[in-house]
Amino acid sequence: MRKQSGGKPPSRLPFPVVGLGASAGGIEALKVFLEALPARSGAAFVVVLHLSPEHSSNLSAVLQPLTEMPVSQVTETVTIEPNHVYVIAPALAMTMSDDELHVEKKEVTDVSAASIDLFFRSLAAAHRERAVGIVLSGAGSDGSVGITRIKELGGITVAQAPAEAEHSSMPHAAIATGMIDFTLPASEMPQRLLDFWKNAKQIRLPAEPEGADEDTETNRAFSESNERALREIMIILRTRTAHDFRHYKRATVLRRIERRLQVNGFTDLQQYRDYLHVHPEETAALLQDMLISVTNFFRDKEAYEALRKEVLPIVFRNRTAEEPVRVWAAGCATGEEAYSIAMLLQEASAQTSEHVPFQVFATDIDERAINIARDGLYPESIAADVDATRMKQFFSKEGAHFRIKKELRERVLFALHNVLSDPPFSRLDLVCCRNLLIYLDREAQIDILRTFHFALRPGGHLFLGTSEAADTVGGLFAVVDKKARIFRANVAVRTDTPLPIAASGAHGVRPTLSVLQPPGKRKFSFGDLHQRLVEQYAPPSVLVNRESEIVHLSDRAGRFLHYAGGEPSHNILAAVRPELRLELRTAIYQALQTQRSVEARRVRMDREGRSFFVNMIARPVHDDEANADFILVLFDEVEDSMVGSNGGQADDQRDPIIAQLERELQRTKEQLQATIEQSETSTEELKASNEELQAINEELRSATEELETSKEELQSINEELTTVNAELKAKVEETSKINDDLQNLITANDIGTIFVDRNMRIKRFTPRATDVFSIISSDVGRSLLDITHRLEYDRLADDAAEAFDSLRLIERELKSTDGRWYLARFLPYRTTEDRIDGAVLSFVDITSRRAAEEQLREAGQAGLDEVERRRDEFLAVVSHELKHPLNLISASAELIARAPDARQNGAIARAANTIRRTVMGQAQIIDDLLDMSRLRTGKLSITRSAVDLKEVVQRISHTVQEEAQRNNIDFRLSLPDEPVAINADLTRIEQIVWNLVSNAMKFTDANGKISVELTLDEHAARLSVSDTGIGIDAGMLPQIFNMFQQGRTNTAAKRGGLGIGLSLVKELVAVHGGRVDAHSDGLGLGATFTVELPRIVGAATDAGGAAYPSTFLNGADILLVDDDTETVETFKLLLEMEGASVAVATNGEQALEMLDSTPPSLILSDLGMPGMSGFEFIEAVRRRPELAHIKAVALSGFGRQGDVEDALHAGFDAHLTKPVMLDALLSTIARLRAR
């Protein structure tokens, strides 16, 4: 009967179940799959997709229009039906059991990537050969573990073609396992599955011998041809691969071959045999199916937990560091179980005081699986099998995989080994062989169990799979944990343990071996044990084990045994005389059950014409030295009756002849007695001689057994050496390959690299390193500091020392003497033990990169310049457009203020002044924005001259004093007596003072105080503006000079401004070589701003603006040119009020015509006019010599330095930026007159 590898019974469903796993990009693949799938395929389809647990899913609604089959989302347990599509719900984990789908809420700590593996595993266990696993597009490696379980249990595995998948990580990971049957585009999968299922129904395989149907000649012929084909297939497999599967169970072999028939589309073994003949590559595929190496970490967690709690404490008990624990993981597949055992051993070793070492020998006959195990690299989905603590302790993350850490890998030796034919290891504490025996026939199972018994130390443990047992060979093992399948080797059992075939002597003779004893212990003898017991119990006796096998007899016990013809048996119940058998069996059973002596019912026996009774006692005993239980059977013979004496009275009168005869008879008796005594003496002597011979023979036999044991130990040691040698060979080959790769990398790369030790001695260098250093091969071992180089670099030793000390990367860009540039990198050289053993110096030629970076920088700068140019143009246009109406408003306010009514009506004068201040404020904001932009780009023009800071402060303070009086603000001004000369731009100094004073006015309420104080010291002038206004929050002081930052609470925004004034003040002060500070004691406590500027002594200063009489322009002829009629009319009235004669033109052409008739003494012209611009107009004027003497002033909203320079270059004598204040215009005219 075939045993299952898992604990769950197979599903009763008669139809296939297809599991589809997908992640990123998988929905498109699912759509393509369902569109190509017929509505009545006869199968059920289960979709497991990585879904976000935070959102609901409408996947079923998305897929439903693509198929006629019902598509439902699984939120509770459902019965699977054919021609249905089931979709996993978010935040749930889905499994299959029998014919139902089960879901449970997924914990937050669950690894989401394991949901596909979880379902695939349950699908394989429940549905076995009718299971299909399909891996579609997705990121990560989910599904790669689950499809191996499906393949192991006879199902079909499919992966989407990576070239078609939107995200190919999951298909790639599945294909990399070697367990994929088909790699197909999603559109081709449905038809291939339908063909597969159709072909599977037509496959005919040989029946089991006892179930063969030979009713017809046709069936017999088919059966015979199939049997021949099967034998030929196995011969082909053995010949081409050197693997013999004759000991595999017939059902296992047929099931594996049936998969290959299904995959290749054949219906009988003859077709497949012929295919094997012409396609040798199919042999490898068949071998891979026969050697399905599938397992996972801590498979059957309860069993591993039992091993950890019940066995490992015993294994490590009383062990020292000189006596390592030895474990053999036979049939280790891809290493998961071997590493699982190693993890448990590591944890148990860490709990011992001496940290007892351990060694795991892991073997398998599958070379591909062994290579995977040696590499120790597993998909990230193993996190579903290994708890987080062990993941952190024993694994390191490498991309989408986890690798066993080197410390644990070094504890496990992997080797190719056939447990049926290769010599075993010896002196083992534990043998782990899980789910291998279930695939082998009974004879092979017995041989393997005997091999394991031989390999184990006395009392060692055997760990088998959940469907395996060690009771096929009686007496070898005792049960430790039946559920976990843990057994202990019985030490006091003598068994004929056969050597594996490869280690046998000539002609296949299998010598008998004795059980290995622990090193340093006396060899155990059953005779010694029996002798000790006989000293206590005199009757004839037989010593048997718990299985009633005879292990020793006393001298007189043989008369109670009877051996008939046939194969002899060691079982006492078979060997004892038939009359005693029933009672003895009962007594032995009761003794084992009660662990007390049991006396059997007296049995009557007849022998040699006499009758007697036999008493039998079964006495259970335990021997500590043997660590085993036995039964001592005692036999006691009792006569049936005693023979009485029948003497009569002798005749007193005897015949003399009779008396004589009696005397002779007496003498004869005495002689006979003497002869008998002599005979008995001779017999005793012969018996003693025979015993001596037996003792000698026993010694010889023991010596022979010891020699055989030594031979076996040598074979085991040789096998271990072979294993270590194979591991070493693999490491050497790996090292050689790495060395070849490194050598080719050194030769091929274009990087100069030098390896040095901690003393800067050269260990190795690449050819390109000679471009930088004057190194030759003989310089290896010399200090690099003694080698000349071509770099403009004198910190080589310092940087190397810093790299050693800081253990961090150091990079420098260095220039060579020939003009090339190198990126020099100093990196500590770390060994695999994380020890610093020098440094790696690499020099990458970055000359081309530097040139490209320079070109890129220049191109970027050009782009930035273009962006700045366009931004400046935009700001200039915006400024012009904004200043145009301000100019008109300002001129109108001036006109109102100078009207006679305004002089008589104070309200009108105040309104005009308010309008002018508002216009000035808005114009200042626009100028501040433009100036900040120019400052940030370094394009602000500064024209320095000797400026009287005292005059500027006084003039601006007088400007705001009238407003302060109206608001009942106490405005105090403190100035030094002498002028304060500074080397500065007058306009920018006015901006600084104006911003500070106007801010104080803006944030100081009625009844407040403002103090403006200008003081001097030897080298600097200090302007302090204080107020008692709303103050500044302490947390905002560090940001008060930031752009667009208003730090005086939320009410600051209600008082106007953009928050750029103080930022501009800071920048302008910095440009003039000064500094500015802000101080406030908090909200509501006012603020103080202090500006410190360097002063100059004894310089003539620019006094700035001055007052002009109302008749200043008497006699002046002015031509005013502007396309805006309102502006023209307003300025005409203003200039006429000042005594000028004003002519007006609205464009350049008209102005030129007026110049022909009446040339003026002054031209005031706008620049941005339609038709002929102001530039073109003045250029036309300057081309006419008769007009060259006329002074011209440009009036424009464009106020950039470039705009001013362009105006002067075109022919204007001065440039004023709108809005134009009358005082500024009069000052400019006065300056032009003075030339």
UniProtKB/TrEMBL annotation:
Annotated GO biological processes are: chemotaxis; regulation of DNA-templated transcription
- Domain CheR-type methyltransferase stretches: 227-469
EC? 2.7.13.3
Entry GO CC: cytoplasm; plasma membrane
Residue intervals of the Histidine kinase domain: 877-1097
Q: Which residues carry this modification: 4-aspartylphosphate?
A: 1166
The record's listing under InterPro entries reads: Bact_Chemotaxis_MeTrfase, CheB_C, CheR_C, CheR_MeTrfase, CheR_N, CheY-like_superfamily, HATPase_C_sf, HATPase_dom
Q: Which keywords accompany this UniProt record?
A: ATP-binding, Cell membrane, Chemotaxis, Coiled coil, Hydrolase, Kinase, Membrane, Nucleotide-binding, Phosphoprotein, Transferase, Two-component regulatory system
Which residue range or ranges hold the CheB-type methylesterase domain? Answer: 14-200
* UniProt signal peptide: none
Boundaries of each Response regulatory domain copy? Answer: 1117-1233
User: Is Signal set as a keyword in this record?
Assistant: no
Question: What is the name attached to this protein's record?
Answer: histidine kinase
Q: Which organism is it from?
A: Trinickia symbiotica
Provide the organism lineage as a comma list. Answer: Bacteria, Pseudomonadati, Pseudomonadota, Betaproteobacteria, Burkholderiales
